[in-house]
């Protein structure tokens, strides 16, 4: 099964079980991905989370049933996973802009989110600057925090972690300590359990563990190193999307499953000429 087919298999599974109590573990298992890498890949390709996709699709089907049948609102609410009519009405209004009763009574226009089909661009419309390098194992010194993958809390917590590091001077300390194989400050995701990750902000460092910091060993790997040009966060997000939608499907490489790295310089993050890197372990 190809990489794209794996993602589509998981999407098909979601569609076939929209009325069930789906778990992210079962969904990601359909693609033979870990929970973290499936959530990450899905959100990069679609710009929405797995949970948001399920919510949109359920409310789309609920709206169709509301308009085309005489079923009671409370029965439709329960069918699509809402315990109370109030919870259903709130979610329905957030997506469609009207309450269920108003939609049925006045035949209002509603938003429809169609079944997702993954398509990738193999044309390489925009050139990607990358190189393949091999590195022996190396260590980073830094700080880490554990983030839950439930409801994708990691996507909310990691930006706040960076804000704190930039505000309290930790980033300046890390740049001063940097003496290892990679120049800059690193953001590193390490899978912990099926429901959590450890996120590190650190720097490549050789020496005794600095006071107040922890150490992490990055295994020897073959890396695809992608150049990122432009201000944060858009430039980094755009290259991630290009990697998953263009490069992986056409390159012949697979993700090796070990931690990825985002590499940041000490330049102004709003600089239009800012240079950063994405390091992905490949096989």
Description:
The chain has 283 residues and is α+β, with helices and mostly antiparallel strands. The chain folds into 2 domains: 3-106, Orthogonal Bundle (Arc Repressor Mutant, subunit A), CATH 1.10.10.60; 130-282, Regulatory factor, effector binding domain (Multidrug-efflux Transporter 1 Regulator Bmrr, Chain A). Helix content is 42%, strand content 22%. It contains 10 helices and 8 strands. It has helices spanning 3-16, 24-30, 35-46, 50-68, 73-79, 85-96, 100-106, 153-167, 170-177, 234-251, and strands at 130-135, 138-148, 185-193, 196-204, 214-218, 221-229, 261-264, 275-282. An 8-stranded antiparallel beta sheet has the order 1-6-8-7-3-4-2-5. A hairpin with a 2-residue loop joins strand 3 and strand 4. It is elongated, with a radius of gyration of 22 Å. The mean pLDDT is 92.
Layout of strands and helices, then pairs:
Blueprint: H1 3-16, H2 24-30, H3 35-46, H4 50-68, H5 73-79, H6 85-96, H7 100-106, E1 130-135, E2 138-148, H8 153-167, H9 170-177, E3 185-193, E4 196-204, E5 214-218, E6 221-229, H10 234-251, E7 261-264, E8 275-282
Antiparallel strand pairs: 1-6, 2-4, 2-5, 3-4, 3-7, 6-8, 7-8
Helix pairs in contact: 1-2, 2-3, 5-6
């Amino acid at each position: 099964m190809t990489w794209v087919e794996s993602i589509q298999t998981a999407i098909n599974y979601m569609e076939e079980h929209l009325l069930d109590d789906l778990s992210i573990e079962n969904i990601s298992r359909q693609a033979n991905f870990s929970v973290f890498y499936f959530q990450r890949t899905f959100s990069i390709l679609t710009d929405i989370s797995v949970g948001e996709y399920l919510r949109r699709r359920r409310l789309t089907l609920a709206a169709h049933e509301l308009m085309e049948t005489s079923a009671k609102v409370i029965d439709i609410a329960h069918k699509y996973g809402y315990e109370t009519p109030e919870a259903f009405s709130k979610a329905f209004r957030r997506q469609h802009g009207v309450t269920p009763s108003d939609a049925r009574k006045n035949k209002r226009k509603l938003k429809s989110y169609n079944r997702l089909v993954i398509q990738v661009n193999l044309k390489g419309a925009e050139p990607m600057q990358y190189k393949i390098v091999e590195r022996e194992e190396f260590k980073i010194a830094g700080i880490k925090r554990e983030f839950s993958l439930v409801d994708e809390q990691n996507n909310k917590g990691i930006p706040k972690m960076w804000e704190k590091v930039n505000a309290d001077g930790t980033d300046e300390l890390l740049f001063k300590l940097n003496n290892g194989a990679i120049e800059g400050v690193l953001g590193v995701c390490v899978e912990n359990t099926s429901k959590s990750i450890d996120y590190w902000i650190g720097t490549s460092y050789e020496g005794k563990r600095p006071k107040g910091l922890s150490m992490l060993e990055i295994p020897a790997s073959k890396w695809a190193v992608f150049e990122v040009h432009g201000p944060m966060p858009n430039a980094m997000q755009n290259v991630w999307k290009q990697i998953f939608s263009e490069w992986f499907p056409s390159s012949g490489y697979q993700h090796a499953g070990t931690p990825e790295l985002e590499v940041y310089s000490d330049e102004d993050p709003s600089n239009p000429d800012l240079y950063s890197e994405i390091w992905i372990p490949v096989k």
